[in-house]
Amino acid sequence: MRSGTRQRLAGVTCGLLTLSVAQTALASDQYLELEPPKTLTGRGYGYNSISREYVLRQCVQFGAGLLDGSGASGDEFKFSSIVSNSQLADEMDLAVNTKFSASMGLVSANASSKVDFFQSTQTNFNTHTILAKYHNVEPMKFVAGDINLKPEYLAMVGTPAFRQQCGDYIVIGEQKGRWFFGTVQLSVRDTVTESKLAASGVIGVEYATMNAEVGISTINKLKQASNTQDLEIHVTSSGTSSASLSVEQFLQQVQAFPGQNGAKQTFKLMAVPYEDIVANWPVNNPLAPLTSEQKLTKLAEAAWGLTALIGDSDFMIQNAKLFALGTTPARRDARVAYIKSRRAWYQGQLDDMRNRARDCDVDWAGKPACESLYNTWKDFEDFVVAEYDQFPIRYVSECYAGRDAGESIQSKLKTALLTTQGQFSNTKGDREMGGGPVSFSANVTFKSDFTGGDPLDTRKLLSTLKIRMEESKADHTTFETTLKTPVFDLAAPSPGETLAQCSYRGSGVKAEYVTIDAEAVCGPMKAINKSAYEKCLEGFKDVKYHGMLSGKTGEDPRTETFNKNSRGVLTSMKCTVDSNAGNDTPMIGCQSIDLRSVQLDLVNRQDVVADGWVAPKKIDVKKLTPSIKPTMQRSNALRKLITPKSAVAAKASRCGEGLVTVAGQCLPKLKKAR
After folding, report:
1. What does UniProt give as the signal peptide span (predicted)?
2. What is the pTM of this model?
């Protein structure tokens, strides 16, 4: 409600019929929105801004008449994805002084259930939070007519006793209604769940931040992807209190609450300094302190931001296995050490801020540290984006889990083999195998299907299968083929998971290479031509495969299964090697293939990027210069989530008698203006 820096105006007027533009801007600072306490309060009661406590007595006399003001009112129901305490405070419409007190750890023990709820809901990037919000509130109702100090308190004005017994503000407005706030929070500590959330569209596949559009289906997806006991559900509302709830009970309560009947309770209070509203207040005797609401908000956002950075740092340190820190233990250890050092720095900055800013909401102008702190932290969004740019990316994909792709690869190869019948190339001799025997050999290798660009972007694993059939007599008729077949696609994993962050490492599989027995092939040359023998050995030096298979048929073969001389991942194949025709070409081909387990060898591509990270050389609160440039995509995503949404004040319709337009709202006229 208040904005800008309040300033004293020369002169005091007892009657204020109209407000100039300048006076209106200043007057908006004199209305103080408050959250209701658990104790008795209402119109006419006092509030002590120094102790941040309500006074349980009415030190004034006023009539029973009321004026209907304007402001936030009516019916609203929505779900929101929450990533910061600042965002949560805005969604809950918490008063600015409450935001500040909460951020500095100064909330009164008598704070309302709404504030208790807010305090217990800690949010940051590593906790997925969904807020269900409903409220139906009336316009603020203000005291009508003159307000006068009771005689017994008039004599105390100007003494410490008055503030102690009456406070320095008087509550002049009360807003009633019904409301419901509930959160479902999930702190994910395993990559399997995070991958399920990404596959279902709850979070982004790159940076694991929750998508903006959320609702009942999102909450159900959180439940389906996680263990129910990992979901923390927290509720507060007017007139009800909830024990531990299941997701089903929570959603039932959310949907039922708007249609239920219930007593309306105090939702918000409005107070002003005694000297600005009390008709018989002595001239030139100000009591209420001065403050600056916009600047308080900035400090509150900075304090919450540091708290979130501390929380996220602790999570990373305790769950380093969930983050891309590099591909070697040394790199990962260095990154964790950096996070620990930054965590200590955040804590030191937060402690210093809370120590120096404790009374900024009491007397901004009288505390030089307040303006200094504001100047330091006013560009907090830039600072926090720069800090998070240095944080490691969270794993969304299960890149390092054991993943046997043997059956999938075998199925793809079998499908490809079925197309080869009649398609083998006749590379030697005539087209007739001549009744055998037939020598058979096959080999298979795997590699990522890289065709240029960034190898980390390669999505497909490519298999190269070579098959050779040779007649063992006559003119050695030979049929051959080479199949290059995509056998695994990282863009199309099993349902319910994502491998978007994964890339193939090395050959893409963990299978050992096998080689040809070069000595058996080249050995006979040794006694005849040593040079040819050595050249033969050299030729086989780099010839290696992931699987090899060989065999020899008897006389008059047709369709044979080869499985006796298998090495590596290739165990058997069933192929037609001859026919009873003068031209065997149409019948030559293979029908099936069997493989051993084939484990994929994957790396999280963010770990590869993290290998290039080095700690920034220049670090201060206003600017952090990274040694490597973060991606603009991530920076923009962070900034969008962190930057507070600009609040748009409700436009007041024509104000009724006794009210004036201040900051877009209809509020009571003040007797005095600063």
Report:
1. 1-27
2. 0.80
Residue 301, amino acid = E
Q: Is residue 197 classed as helix, strand or coil in its secondary structure?
A: helix
Structure tokens at 67: 């004026």
Q: What is the Cα–Cα distance from 637 to 557, expressed in whole angstroms? A: 65
- Residue 452 backbone zone (phi > 0: left; psi -120 to 50: alpha; other: beta): left
- pLDDT at 610 (0 to 100): 92
Give 592: exposed, middle or buried? Use CB within 10 Å, 0-12, 13-18, 19+.
Answer: middle
Angstrom CA distances, 122 to 282, 299, 304, 305, 608, stand at 46, 18, 10, 11, 32
Strands 169-186 and 231-237, by their bridges, are antiparallel
Q: What is the dihedral of CA 623, 624, 630, 632, to 10 degrees?
A: -10
Query: Which residue carries 């890289």 as its tokens?
Result: 450
Are 183 and 234 in contact, with CB atoms under 8 Å apart?
yes
The pLDDT score that the predictor gives to residue 674 is 44
Q: Taking the C-alpha atoms of 229, 230, 235 and 240 in order, what is their torsion angle to the nearest 10 degrees?
A: 0
- DSSP label at residue 292: B
Q: Which residues neighbour 260 within 8 Å (Cβ) at sequence distance 6 or greater?
A: none
Question: Tokens in use for 207?
Answer: 């940076």
Q: In a 3-state reduction of DSSP, which class is residue 50?
A: coil
Answer whether 665's CB lies under 8 Å from 69's CB.
Answer: yes
Helices 380-389, 632-642: crossing angle, 10 deg rounding:
140
Name the burial class of residue 155, with classes exposed (0-12), middle (13-18) and buried (19+) by CB atoms within 10 angstroms of its CB: exposed
What are the residue ranges of helices labelled H in 469-604? 518-522, 530-540
- The amino acid at residue 393 is I
Q: Which two tokens stand for residue 540?
A: 């086989």
76 CB-contact burial (10 Å; exposed 0-12 / middle 13-18 / buried 19+): middle
Peptide bond just before 437 cis, omega within 30 deg: yes
How many Cβ atoms sit within 10 Å of the Cβ of residue 55?
22
Ramachandran quadrant class, 428 (left: phi over 0; alpha: psi -120 to 50; beta: rest): beta
According to the model, what pLDDT value does residue 415 have? Answer: 95
How far apart CA 397 and CA 637 sit, in angstroms, is 19
Looking at residue 25, what is its pLDDT? 31
Q: What is the pLDDT of residues 277-288, one digit of tens each?
A: 999 988 767 777
Rounded Cα gap, residues 268 and 31, in angstroms? 13
User: What is the helix, strand, coil percentage profile of the chain, to 5?
Assistant: 30, 25, 40
Which of left, alpha, beta for 374 (phi over 0: left; psi -120 to 50: alpha)? alpha
Four-residue CA torsion sign, 396, 400, 401, 402: positive
Q: How far is CA 48 from CA 10, 164, 266, 308, 549, in A?
A: 26, 8, 19, 30, 88
**Beta strands in 121-199, from DSSP E residues, in sequence order:** 128-137, 141-143, 147-149, 169-186
Mean pLDDT per 10-residue interval, the chain, length 674 residues: 29 25 42 86 91 90 89 79 88 86 78 83 87 91 93 88 92 93 91 90 81 87 85 83 79 89 89 91 74 85 91 94 95 95 93 91 85 88 83 92 93 94 93 89 96 91 96 89 96 88 95 86 83 83 91 92 94 94 92 95 94 78 48 68 56 72 81 56
Contact of 578 with 436, CB cutoff 8 Å = yes
Structure token pair of residue 537: 């050995």
Contact predicate 241/135, CB 8 Å? no
DSSP for 573-594? Answer: EEEE---SSS--TTT-EEEEEE
Q: How far apart are CA 316 and CA 121, in angstroms?
A: 20
Query: What DSSP string describes 2-17?
Result: --SB--PPSS--S--S
